Task: structure prediction
Amino acid sequence: MAIKSDYVKYIETYVDSSSTQSQQAASVNEVASLVKKDLLTLETLVREMQMYLTTTDSIIRARGVLFLGELLMLLISKPLEDTVLHSLAGFFSDRLADWKALRGALVGCLALIRREADVGTVSSADAKSILQSYMQNLQVQSMGQHDRKLCFQLLEGLMSRYPGEVVPLGETVLFGVCAAIDGEKDPQCLVLSFHITKILGGLFLDSSGPLADIADELFELIGCYFPIHFTHPKSEDVEVKKEELSRELMMAFASTPLFEPFSMPLLLEKLSSSLPSAKIESFRYLSYCIPKYGAARVEKYAEVIWSSLKEVLYISPSTSLVEPDPTGGMGFQDSEMTTQALILLQEVVQIDNGPFLSKIICDEDINTFLNGLTQFQNFSDIALEGKQKLHAISRILSFATKSSVSFCNKLFEKFFPQIMSVLGLSVEDSSKPYIPSSQVSFGAVYLCTELLDACRLLVLDMGKSIPLGDFADEQWCCVLQSSCISLYNLYASVLEASTADSTSNACVYSGVKGLQILAMFPEGFLPASKSYEDILQMLILIFTSNFDKTFLWNSILSALCEIGLFISGSHELEKTAIFERIVLYNMTSLLGSDDHDFPSDLNLQAIAKIGMIGQNFSLNLLQGLDKIIFAKLPEVYVSGNEKSIGLIVKLLHCYSSELLPRINEAGSSEEVLVSFAANIWDIIGSSVVSNFDYQETELLGATMATMKNIVGKCSVRSQEIVIKKAVGLISSSNISPWMAATSDTTMLQPDQLNERYCYESFSYRDKWITSIFASVMVPLRPQTQIPSIRSILQFFVTTLHFGHVPSAYALGSLVNKLPLKTRTPEECSLEEALGIIFSNSIWNFCCNIDAKEGSADANGGIDINSLKLCTPSSLIVQVHAIVGLAWIGKGLLMRGHEAIKIVTIALMRCLLVDGNFDVEMLKDVGVDGKEHALVTLMRSAADAFQVLMSESEVCLNKKYHATVRPLYKQRFFNTVLPILLSSVQKTDSQTVRSMLYRAFAHVVSDAPFGAIMGEAQKLLPVLLDCLSVLSKDTANSDRVYDVLLVLSGILTDKNGREAVTENAHIISKQLISLVSYSHMMVIRVTAIQCLVAMSELPHVRIYPFRPQVLPAITKALDDPKRIVRQEAVKCRQAWLVLLSLCSSFKVLLKL
Amino acid sequence: MVSQLINANPVVYEKKERRSRCAPSDVDEVISLTFSQHLRDIKDPEHPYSLEELKVITEDAIEVDDQRSYVRVTFTPTVEHCSMATIIGLSLRVKLMRSLPPRFKVDIRVAPGTHATEAAVNKQLNDKERVAAALENPGLVDMVDECLAPSYA
Result:
């Protein structure tokens, strides 16, 4: 039990009006936690508080009651006994009468009402007594805003939680509510009061009950807020949005049909308001309320609603014209008003059973318009007004059609024959051959298309709830079915005509869309399934022969995509088969044949777009491409035909980057992919061509990329199949000695290697095999078993020696994925693999260290000395070795293996080679040559850090199943940074320093920003020194820019403030020198922007630099580049306002 | 602010379309874009419109000679007796001083026949001493700065 003095102290703090608000809040929290821990019971507390709760000093009493109320609010989820709740409820409902201590009572009641069932709720009798006391005592509108809000919350709580107690009180409650909400103006309270009205509507459903008597009064109170309009848009009540308020009011309006006699006239009257926003609101409210009120009540308004809809949609439409319309339609865009009006139209048509529909059907304007449809003959001859009318009518009819079957029936009875006769078609007899008249009426075609589309949507909508056969014998369906052939003929002729000459886009649009709609009715609805096939045939024919008409071509392509999307979504097997047979087959077979002039670029573009529809289509297309590629490839490889190379490269590109990504990993596609890979190996194996003149690398690149992507998609098992095939091919080829000589190669001295073999001596076939084999290795999954892995590693190290970069990717990927522990002897653990790789002579030839030492020692570690790359005997080989080392290092780094240390140290050594290496090795080059060789070596070592830190597209990424340890960059950054920094400090050679900074720039610019910010203090001086060193050499300008970006990041970050302030002097000095960096504009711009950022530092710090900064910026005002000048103006201004105004102008005038 | 506006109802014109930021040439023509870059966004001292919208300055009214480092701006006050003309001129001068390299000589004048005391205004605007004196006056500087504020955005 808590000691009495403890909590009494808190109560006293709370009641004491001199204590601060936070103290009061804290004291309630303290007491609440005591009660929650059961150290204090509520009874004890109340007894203790007796004095505060009953004193005649109203201020103290108010505080006391409020304390108890707030406490209960905090204890809302604490289980309490019924007796406690009962006595508290009694107390608070009494207190509601005490207007001087009302706030506390309201809070207390609210806390009691809001309790959930599992922690004990107030009994309904208590709730009733609270409600009664509320109705008796509270004059809501005479209170302050916060109290009113509490009152409304309490009322809302009572109504939603205790409806059983509210209804019997009937009129009392209703009058109470009316009195409470009368004249409310605060948005928060209004939301609550609208909500209360809505609940009331749901509680008093009886049409002769108490609400019916008072409905007019209640509606008068809430109706006056419509439409919601804030007179003070920037009031402090930002949390209540206009939309929220408007929605609540709308729900209150719709809460009971009893409001209908009052709300409908109001809303309809506002429709004729001159304020567009009021009109839009009215449409929204009507669309929401009408379904709630029911058809019977709304019937009498049909006339008014229709006339106002017609006014908005037809007589004075507010659509805006968008030219040119990319879709090729009429080019109108609906305004918000039109959209809302159409929604209302839909709602009304949906619930209506006669009067409203006949208003539309018998409307004079519409009938006159349709009678005069013949005048809309040619699209270009129709005036804007005519187009608008046509658009409006089609919108009205199609919206009404798609929402109601009965309207659809009426439409097909009355209007459809009319439209058809304008088109020269007969509804009854579709067998009559269609003879296209010289000119089809555009207006009629357009209208017909839109109505057809609406019908289709209606069919689809109904098809969800009832089987197709059940409504297929409705009148309109019969009419549609009987006329479908003539419709097909109509659209076909429209489309034919549009290919002939330059017809307007709108005609093309109608023709294509009509055919598309006909093809997209659900199966079995339209009788002639043959027509579906005809439509596709027709589209494809026009598609392939009219590639020069861009709009026509594009709209057919998108129509085909739509059809494909629809049939693949509706699982109609027969139609899917037809689609594949006609569209997909035609698309791919055209590529294969030479005797046509359809450009292959367009063809591939179409294939890529259709491939996007779905997995099965893209697989189908893949197979199609597959066939063509393998029909063409032998021409290149076997017979040396170079003509097809360009096409094959495009095909491969489409295959690997457009279609392949659409295929899911697991699935039936596996076999297709594996056979593709196997086929490539077969063809290369049978290749006899010894020489390509041109485009060879392009083809090789495309093949490698495709291979990589395919193998990346394959499962472990299929990957193994592909590797086996490859290894088999290699062992039968000229390069097999390389694979076999596992143990020997280590013994080979590099000079011998160079003499005996070199990459140039490889035949083209072998080069291809090597490159493609390397790209198979990149995307392997970690679980994939690789046969004769040791020889493969050896092989790649050797080819790496010749500067074959894909081999480096392969080695990096292998190192990244090999298992740490082996299960079978065939497998090769990572340690062993590293042993094999690093024991090769490439890393240590001409070194005094025995190669054997380089292999894995007993501890499983690798002797660091074995990786000594410091001898430039053959510069080229050294550079190749460094590239390889970088990729291997990246593989290790990403998996977080500690061997990365060795790689880092080796790279650092290359960076730090100085004058005292073995000069013997360079005896045949002069001093300049030596210098040059050294620099090249160091530069490649520095660039290796870029490989290590940056993301790569070609290998070692998620797509190619790389093992990626989280935060590897950050870790590497943290380890390598001190090494680099200390080396920089130690060295006194300018070249070495510049190269070290180059490496540093790579590391810093790719490191995560968070890591940099952590070291900002230490990094800043180095960054600046780095900038000054790198900016001396123009070749480094990209690096300078990267580092400058890092610096600007630190400058603009809040956490870097301190470090920046301390180094402000050197930063500004460096930035000033970069402002005149003449080799790269972005550097100047960024430097100036950094200076702007610096001007926000504390004035005391930067004031001294003003004399240096201002002249530099003034010079930049004369920069040859406009962007620089513009930034300079801003920067100058930023620095000028730093100074007191008068003196600033003196400075300015002197300059 | 003066209690009564000198031109209570100015005619507001449309803004011209901006030129794209990136010039394709290697070296941008030096200051021929003075207008679009620096002057068009200066605010009128009386109204919340830019000088461009009020047609106080137009592109044609600005002569720039890069070789001879010379700029001449001719502006048109909205009404003949406009007492704000000197403030507008001062704003133009200050803006150009801040935005152009110091080698430029800036000459600012009221378009002939558009102001009652044309000669006096011209003299005042091109007198170095008087401009410097004006800029010593904190009230004036505040006013000028307010006009220039939008052009730095």
